[in-house]
Amino acid sequence: MRSRYLFLFSLCFLLLIGLPLLAQNSNSGLQIYAIDVEGGQATLLVTPNGQSMLVDTGWPGFENRDADRIVAAMKLAGVQQIDYLLITHYHRDHVGGIAQLADKVKIVNFIDHGPNLEDADQTRDGYKAYEAAVAKENGKRLTVKPGDKVPVPGLDVQVLTAAREHIANPLPGAGQPNAFCASEPAPPDDVTENPASLGVLVSFGKFRFLDLGDLTKQKEVELMCPNNRIGKVDVFLVSHHGLFQSNSKSLVHAIHPRVAIMNNGPKKGGSPEAWQIVHDSPGLEDLWQLHYAIDSDKSHNSTNNVIANLNDVDGNYIKVVAKQDGSFVVSNSRNNFQKTYAEPKRNPADFGRLPAPAGFDYPKAAIDTITGQYEKPADSRGIEQAASMVAASPLRPTSLN
Ligand SMILES: [Zn+2]
Prior knowledge:
Blueprint: H1 2-26, E1 30-34, E2 43-46, E3 52-55, H2 65-77, E4 82-86, H3 92-95, H4 98-104, E5 107-112, H5 121-136, E6 140-143, E7 149-150, E8 156-162, E9 165-166, E10 199-204, E11 207-211, H6 217-224, E12 235-238, H7 249-255, E13 259-262, H8 272-279, E14 286-291, E15 307-309, E16 318-322, E17 328-332, E18 338-341, H9 362-374, H10 380-392
């Protein structure tokens, strides 16, 4: 009799504790929500283990509109708190919603580029609101600089730019001469908070996501010329809401994104010039938009399927679920349209650009890529050559962690 109770108790325990764990483990992807904050930024990243990082908090005011949308995305992603809040810079459309958000959810760690660098009341107020939120939450504040990492468990979050500085050396596997620099017009000086944006490259296995906040062209060119310090990425969050002051060819074309997501508003961002540069980027498969850009024209907006808000009803988000193998799915919450982007077949020359997952057989994968991608008959001499080239390559990662 007693053993029967024990059995029932064990069964209940398994159902209550085990099933949710199983459900969580079955979600092996990194979730990224590009939340609609009407031409600001709020991007939520949630790892399979439930660690959350939010990049920016949208606007203040609007009766908690942006904070409510962030909380709704957190519910969908299954998280109760923000483990890491990264503020790119102190403009209202990025840090403005911080007090409203902190009233609704717990924020544990705060990541920033340091004090406000713009001589304007708007950014002085933004910085004050940021400091007040850190104090209210009794949060841990971490000011980072280029080359640092944001310590989110399960993600590699590499700081590329901060406080108008950028990484001095290319990332492993990057550093090739950037052919798009020669034709790049000289960018104007920018003394605002935009070029101070804290920009990060987030890697999850082989998947790479780039978010440079509102970094403007002057810093883009310094970061990307004459050599490409970043390498290539899978998903590019189009800088600065798709405004023409950002998104130079020397950045966008060189990083060779497969998918771009533009966090524009109906009447903010989505400049025809920037849209065209992103659209024409070599290798781009789709340009997703948070809004139809009203002030632009039909030929400088993507097809409706990949636009989250057509400006009748708004608040729809774009979601990415990425796997460690580099494949990912992007979906539109307005119409449930979704598209799968398969694990990329890469040129061996690109190989060093990615951190290899544990157990990854490097030379063999390179050979598979050669034979698979170019569909040439496997010539054993070629394979041996390729294997020795990869083994001897300085781009080969020293660690397979
Ligand atoms: Zn902005």
